[in-house]
Amino acid sequence: MPTKILGLLTLLTMSAPLLAQNQTVADLIAPYPLPVQYATASEDVQVAYIKTGQGETTLIFVHGLGSYVRGWEKTWPAFANSYQCIALDLPGFGRSSKGAYSQSMAFYRDAILAVMDAENIQQAILVGHSRGGQASLYTALENPDRVLALALSAPAGIETFTEQEATALRNAYTPETYGGMVEAQVRYSYGLNFHVWQEDAEPWVADRLAMREADDFQGFATAWVKSVGGMLDSPVYARLGEIMQPVWVAYGAEDQLIPNRYLHTTLTTEGVGGLAKAAMPQAEVQLIPDAGHFVHFEQSEEFNSRLLMFLKTIQ
After folding, report:
1. H or E element that contains 294
2. What's the pLDDT score for residue 13?
3. Sheet holding 45-53, edge to edge
4. The domain 28-311: what is its CATH number?
5. Would the pTM of this model clear 0.90, i.e. be above it?
């Protein structure tokens, strides 16, 4: 073999591990079921989303803390025959850009509106889960003309926290401790989202473990931690009476995350639902049996059926 060719092969072999390391979270997680598009929220913020369906009305699915587009994979397909369906990755998560972002509710609102603007959507129904539910509420409060209605799955923002409680929550994790979770800890944290573990959620765990090798994984871990502060810094409960749109709220009867079991030992999930109803008298609040925090995934058929009934009431 010529010396030059041998030298080139040696160089490629030596550099292969370095090339393999140059991967992002988007490279390492499993492909999405539909083509990924991007909307520009600001100069350095690209919001990834998928789009499908048909209909005059658009549903925009906004995921919760640590989740991504795939968190809705049992939801949007049930509505694509009658509605245009868009599921997005909030910045810092999934295939959206990672960076030194605020992770505030205003920041998430801007991401949601960026997708709407990219698709020339004036109004949409926001379907938000957990942290995404709070972001959807915030968007409705700050930009009511852009939100036709709200459908919320186990939304954050209803349960409130004192300053002391908020400090405890902020200090619970750092990017290093969250990012450094071993597989057993990752599986435990995912398991808390369900009443009974769903094998269909196993790919999420695989993605979460795979992304630890990504160059921008620290950006994801930082986004996760800062998101907790973002929720605490932008409480919405005191303003919920300003929301005039139709609202539908569903909680899983066996939710282990809302309310916070350590800080609010006497509050129940049903009680949180009662707080939502008290703040938004027009809201339809439902408790779905045999479901945890990912109520729309664990009891997808029941959730989708009830959500469809609500959507049919919206003019």
Report:
1. none
2. 44
3. 37-42, 45-53, 84-88, 58-62, 124-129, 147-153, 247-252, 284-288
4. 3.40.50.1820
5. yes
